[in-house]
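Problem statement: downstream parser choked on a complex file, so we are re-checking the raw output for the 1-O-phosphono-alpha-D-glucopyranose run. The parser issue turned out to be on our end (a line-ending mismatch), but while we're here, posting the original submission so the record is complete.
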Amino acid sequence: MATPAPVSKAVIPAAGLGTRFLPATKAMPKEMLPVVDKPAIQYVVEEAVSAGLHDVLMVTGRNKNALENHFDRAGELEAVLSSKGDDEKLQKVNFATGLADVHYVRQGDPKGLGHAVLRAKMHVGHEPFAVLLGDDIIDERDPLLPRMLKVQSELNTTVVALLEVDPSQTHLYGIATVEPTDEEDVVRITGLVEKPAPGTSPSNLAIIGRYVLRPEIFDVLERTEPGKGGEIQLTDALQELASGPSWSGGVHGVVFRGRRYDTGDRLDYLKAIVQLAVDREDLGVDFRPWLTSFAAQLGAAEAPQDGEDG
Ligand code: G1P
């Protein structure tokens, strides 16, 4: 078997309307929402870069200007900070500028994740590539992508990240049926289904937003019919590869057991910010004791008072 080309490109779909966060996302993409003090998308680009993927393609929708500006020079701001000698803030501003070689393509019609990935075809060419979804932030202390890249190159396969979720959550994800391999936490995927109805899920292994795909996925996506929600689903295309002929390399999963933060809806977004803030060197020291006492107050307010039932 020919040695697969090393992965150098990351594709980040960023064309969603972000309606769960309206009105914040009326004029700004949801990927720019701050998680503590960094836009969600910067965490994802940093993750790609630390896994060695310096070429980043963002598949954008309307309001892409804020994204482009974030990863570009900010001359006026830089000049003001420089004249004040505020090197620390200047460094924060410049960091995102030099982070990666960022490219943009418009999705056009929002026809689903599979369609967004298909828009990357010209840019990606004939190499395997990674896809990172902005709603999932993987803690930098628990690297996931490097393991996925290793599995991809060793087995010349397609790789998705899997997470064991509570059975009540399976209807929110693509769900995998798997069989074990010799390698710990690496599984062979025998079937995939997008967002199964509650009570019908074949397992509790959910796809989280990290994929390492082979370029064959584009041919499959081109013929993938709209599925769940009337959208072209990446999961459906992966299912075809999982059940396809052996030349397709099949699909493998890396089961992730590290820290992952979901920023996809408002409640999870709030939790993500709190979890990341308590661990921050600059904020945690003050935030942790405040949070502890705030939680104690909440607990006291919610505890049944003397004389109350229950
Ligand atoms: C998408 C995918 C789904 C996957 C999820 C991970 O769904 O379609 O298979 O499990 O991302 O976050 P979305 O969350 O965009 O609805």
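For whoever reads this later: The mean pLDDT is 93.
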